[in-house]
Design goal:
The chain has helices spanning 6-20, 26-33, 37-49, 74-80, 99-125, 128-141, and strands at residues 53-56, 62-65. It has 152 residues and is mainly alpha-helical. It has one domain: Arc Repressor Mutant, subunit A (Orthogonal Bundle). The protein has a two-stranded antiparallel sheet with strand order 1-2. α1 (6-20) packs across α2 (26-33), α1 packs across α6 and α4 crosses α5. The longest helix has 27 residues, at 99-125. The chain is elongated, with a radius of gyration of 19 Å.
């Protein structure tokens, strides 16, 4: 099963935007992500609708983070990208009348719900500011010749 990397990609884009300190075009962000500008625009559309990013058209325009990084949690971003599935595993439903399948599914479903609740609680506690701080600490630890924040 293919992994859904939208959350990771959006976080990557947001940190590049925040670090730039000025509007970034979809083309600039796509270069940093090594992807297509259309992918960037698609990812940021939901964030704009949620009030997390802002876009300006025209010369000097581009994307900016719309709120303080400390006020944006991973959970906010997760919700803005449409709440993709957090766990790729699921239950069998080939024999719904089978008591063994029912017992297995009940145990797994409870475990899946518990794991998702823990993950979402963690997402609520992690902010973009914390990720930006981690990035800057990693950058500061590099030898000067290696510092390329665009391509890490």
């Amino acid at each position: 099963m293919k992994r859904d990397s939208r959350l990771s990609g959006v976080l990557h884009i947001l940190l590049h935007m925040a670090d730039a300190g000025e509007p970034r075009t979809s083309e600039q962000l796509a270069k940093a992500m090594r992807t297509n500008p259309v992918v960037v625009r698609r990812l940021l559309g939901g964030l704009r609708d949620a009030g997390l990013v802002h876009s300006e058209k025209g010369h000097g325009g581009g994307w900016t983070v719309a709120r303080n990084l400390a006020a944006i949690s991973l959970a906010d971003i997760y919700r803005a990208i449409g709440r993709p599935a957090l766990i790729a595993m699921g239950n069998r439903d080939d024999a719904p009348d089978c008591l063994v399948e029912q017992a297995v599914n009940a145990a797994l479903e409870a475990s899946f719900r518990e794991a998702e609740a823990l993950l979402l609680a963690r997402f609520e506690r992690v902010t973009l500011a914390a990720l930006a701080d981690d990035f800057h600490a990693r950058l500061a630890a590099l030898p000067t010749a290696c510092k390329d924040p665009v391509h890490g």
